[in-house]
Amino acid sequence: MAKPGKDSGWGNPIVYVAALLLIGLMLGPVLYIILGGFRTNSQITVDPAGLPHPWEFGNYTDVLTSETFWRQVGNSTIVAVATTVGVVVLGVMASYVLARYRFRGRGAMYALFAAGLMFPVTVAITPLYILVKNLGLVNTLPGVILPQIAFGLPTTIIILVPFLQAIPKEIEEAAAIDRCSRLGFFWRMVLPLSVPGLITVGILAFIGSWNSYLLPLFILNNQDTFTLPLGVQAFASQYSVDTAKVLAFTSLSMIPALVFFSLFERRIVGGLTGAVKG
Amino acid sequence: MAPNRTLAVAAVLALSSLSMAACGGDDDKDSSGGNVTMQLWENATTGPGKAFWDKTAADFHTAHPNVTIKIQAVQNEDLDGKLQTALNSGSAPDIFLQRGGGKMAAMVEAGQLKDITEDITAETKQAVGDAVLKAGQVDGKAYAVPTSILPGGLWYSKDLFKKAGITSPPATLAELTDAVGKLKANGTPIALGGKDAWPAAHWYYFFALRACSQATLDATAKSKTFDDPCWTKAGEDLKTFADTKPFNDGFLTTSAQQGAGSSAGLVANHKASMELMGAWDPGVIASLTKDTKPLPDLGYFPFPAVPGGQGDPAAIMGGADGYSCSAKAPKECTDFLNYLLTKDVQEAYYKGFNSLPVNKAAQGAITEDYLKAVLDAYNKAPYVSQWLDTLYGQNVGNALNIGVVNLLAGKGDVAGIIKAVNDAAKKG
Amino acid sequence: MSSNFGGKRAVVTEDAAGRRVRGGSGADTPPPLRPRRRGIGWAQRLEIAALSGPAILMFVGFVIFPVLLAAYYGFYRWKGFGVPTNFVGLDNYVTILQDSSFHEALQHNGLIVVLSILLQGPVAVGLALLLNQRLRGQSIIRVLIFVPYVISEVIVGTAWSLMLQTNGAVNDALKSIGLGSLSEDWLANPKLAIWTLMLILTWKYVGFAVILFLAGMQNIPEELSEAAAVDGASYWQTQRRITLPLLAPTIRIWAFLSIIGALQLFDLVYIIWGQYVASTAGTSTMATYMVTEGRNAGNYGYGNAVAVVLFAISFVIALVYQRFVLRRDTQGALTEGQ
After folding, report:
1. Interface of B with C in 367-426 (CB under 8 A)
2. Using alpha carbons only, what angle is made at residue B49 by residues B48 and B55, rounded to the nearest 5 degrees?
3. Residue B177 contacts A, CB cutoff 8 Å
4. Which one of A29, A84, B41, C243 is CB 3.0 to 4.6 Å from A205, fit for a cystine?
5. In whole angstroms, what is the distance from residue B391 CA to residue A84 CA?
6. pLDDT per residue as tens digits for the range A100-123
7. Structural domains of chain A, ranges and CATH numbers in brackets
8. pLDDT value at residue C6
9. Contacts of A104 in chain B (CB under 8 A)
10. In this complex, is the C-beta atom of A262 within 8 Å of any C-beta atom belonging to chain C?
11. Residue of C29, C132, C307 lying closest to A1 (CB–CB)
């Protein structure tokens, strides 16, 4: 990529202003959510665009000190990490097959996975529940993890296949010359080279799992197993919703997913530079 | 065939047979040696409502030491979906919230509810009255007991009415239109949660209650078509009223109860003067006021009389929350249902949910004067109809609700409502 | 879907700069040390089975099988309780195709598909180009752009619907800075609502596109732009002639995911507009139609039939897309050689 060393002089101020404007637009609603947690429902109705007045810390402190919240964070983390690992591992193996082997039925296999993207989950939920129940996994975290892995495979494979195809044949030939088997090639060369792609799909899988509501809603009954999105239910009583508390709760729930993203996003830009030289 | 395709086919077969094979009854009830455990699904996930259920289950256990009741609180909006899935997979709870109407009829048809006609005790029948128990019946057989009645009407702010110079609640449509004019001048119109459609549709239901005779309402439950001219008259009455623009700005995107910014929130914070709602409204409004305490100047008056209709001007419309036993529930389930309707439990129910109990003796414990006003209107009514979307089933109810929203938004007309309802029959 | 991967066997060359081949010809070289023969050996078959087996098993079991069962329900009129007994064959499908509400929803989906690509694509490419340079605070900016994607759809919907209500934060803020005349009924005005929806969608999903493009840019060797700089190309020329064409395959994949996502759009519309007002405001989609007329109306058979129709439409569009757009990726779109 062009190194801005020489022409960073005049380009940068405009770039920075544009970036700042953009960030303002992006973050406006997020600020609304965070600040909303510091207000009461009445404040939100009466003065929609105002700042908290007075600042209501009760919503945030109630959430942070409640043991249910932390248990839900734990459950969500277990489910999200397991889903991410499962999706990435199974996804990269299947993508490798699709990208670098040639066999009859390859097109059909790709079509099979792509087709999974096209069916709305809201409809599949009823037969899926029956299946999970017959596997004895209702009300358990694996009962949520396994279907989530399955539903995460199509996007993962669609994104990873081009990444794996882009690895030059020269590397594969070189590995073959060195008497490296195809599997060895996969393990030693393909995986490290496809790290940006893996990180990308890993992040997408983690966030998808973190925010997933419908599947855990149907599978999990016992409140001890609830994940964070289900925890919002506690603030919706029979006939009404405590909006301010919901905003506080969700502000806090966002944080782990953001932390995960910021830890890993550097690796996306790690790159393949210099991987193949001469 | 490439190996992966064979594998795929094998997998489908394997997993299908696995799931089909085990599709029998899943018995996680322990009924050996006289010890019975039952699952109860209800929709109060927080606050005094939840506390009520915890206490009631504990008290029942004290009275019947061999019976344990496990409570599952499911958020109101999600309850129906979860319940339907559970019923279909054979792992239904023993006792669960029953909305009644078309949904209950569908469950009965699928054989998923226990017939409890014989199990309702004579004491219960006497304490509650046969009229109320009808809400839990399908074709004369009982499948649910109602635990609370929620009649509808107009909930208003006495202070705002006084400020606008209205001395007594309107008794006729003309008086209402007049009052709204004055209230709008003060910037406090009628609140309407149009986004959820049913609050808007409730206006239509009440106009229909005034325009159509009781016989017509009942007959339509069977025919599911709106051919009688009274339905059109109801639509025209609504349109005339709506043309005076009585509702809050942006009512199409105001929700009914979902927290801040809802129509209940508007009333709670004196930005609107009244709304047409069921008897759950005081509780909702209380949670949205500045100090989350009940609104001190809240009042109630029944829907006014509308000229030219075949319905009785004092008739009232309302819903009933009730509980059913699933088909496979043990007999202790009906014992619990009868227990729910005893005086003490009903009084506790009223205190927990701030809604009208069905047990007549328990009704004496009501203190709030707006609830007393509701009870009064309810007892004086010559007949009570259930909400039309409950009565006619979700399919027709949905189409009806959408038709009304289209009318109020100016996108459709009265004939459109009739057509939407008649068309709905094709889909379900 | 046609089997386009691997395509034609392209000529492999190496030039001085070690240029890589972009596209799908990676799998065609017969391995030099293995006996040449037609078809693939058992060792390969075993590898294929071992590598792809677990994924296929999970997928077929948890996704395909429920989908097939749901499709089966589409042939019935079913209230959702008990076993379906009222077989109506294709009646549900006929009703769907004749329903004007469905036609409206289909139109809305079409508009959303097109606008999503037109609005998000250029913005995301611009952002990705921006963020691929070494800027101060680059990491933080990346995180901040991605934040909307991280927030669950339910909360995005709740927050935006609160803000965009007629008496909500946006109109209130406009009034307080004196621009009260600009306040509108953002959500219920049929002329505006669809644009409001596009704004929210762009806000939420541009981060997803940026991430994909950033990752895709990592496949582009720096040597190319260095060589171009040596040849005297300006920054923009480099982007236009080198980066963008090499990014094109990633863009095409993103567009595919975006199209399918737009066709399936449900959560945001449902949370903000609810199931009733969506059609009045002009933002109903096929998926909200499915839930309104299906699950919420107690017509489970009908709802499942709508899901099958939605699937069929998505599938056809995907096939067409594969054939005409993605096929380019597999025929050595880049000219290699000297």
Report:
1. 393-395, 397-399, 401-402, 405-406, 409, 411, 424, 426
2. 80
3. no
4. A84
5. 47
6. 888 888 888 888 888 888 887 777
7. 71-234 (1.10.3720.10)
8. 35
9. 2
10. yes
11. C132
Q: Which residues of chain C have pLDDT under 70?
A: 1-40, 135, 327-338
Backbone angles phi, psi at B150, to 5 degrees: -130, 75
Measure CB to CB from residue B259 to each of A105, A130, A243 and give the nearest one.
Answer: A243
- pLDDT (mean) for B124-130: 89
CB-based contact A130 B77, cutoff 8 Å: no
C285's enclosing H/E stretch is none
Beta-bridge partner residues of B275: B155
Question: Do residues A211 and C153 lie in contact, with contact meaning Cβ atoms separated by under 8 Å?
Answer: yes
Q: Is the pLDDT of residue A23 over 90?
A: no
- List Cβ neighbours of B255 (8 Å cut-off, separation of 6 or more): B193, B195, B196, B261, B262, B263, C274
Q: Are residues C276 and C186 in the same domain?
A: yes
The pLDDT assigned to C129 comes to 84
Give the gap in angstroms from C-alpha A218 to the nearest C-alpha of chain B. Answer: 6
Q: What is the CATH number of the domain that holds C166?
A: 1.10.3720.10
CATH of domain B151-317+386-424: 3.40.190.10
Q: Does A3 touch chain B (CB under 8 A)?
A: no
Q: What is the mean pLDDT of residues B64-79?
A: 87
For residues A55-73, average pLDDT = 90
CATH value of B36-150+318-382 in 3.30.470.30, 3.30.70.1140, 3.40.830.10, 3.40.190.10: 3.40.190.10
Q: Does A233 touch chain B (CB under 8 A)?
A: yes
Distances in Å between the Cα of C203 and the Cα atoms of B78, B281, C117, C146, C156 are 28, 36, 13, 10, 10
Residues of C with CB below 8 A from B406's CB?
279-280
The reply to whether C147 and C285 lie within a common domain is yes
Dist. CA A116–CA C311, nearest whole Å: 9
Closest A-chain CA to C68: A124
User: What DSSP state is assigned to residue C36?
Assistant: P
Show the domain range for C180.
Answer: 90-330
Contact status, residue C144 vs residue C229, Cβ threshold 8 Å:
no
**What digits encode the pLDDT tens for the residues B309-321?**
999 999 999 888 8
Q: Do domains B36-150+318-382 and B151-317+386-424 have the same CATH topology?
A: yes
Tokens 């004007």 identify what position?
C100
Tokens linked to C305:
């039939």
Let me know if residue C148 belongs to a domain.
yes
Length of chain B: 428
* Residue B159 pLDDT: 94
Query: What's the whole-model pTM score?
Result: 0.81
Scanning every residue of chain C, which has its alpha carbon at the shortest distance from the alpha carbon of A91?
C55
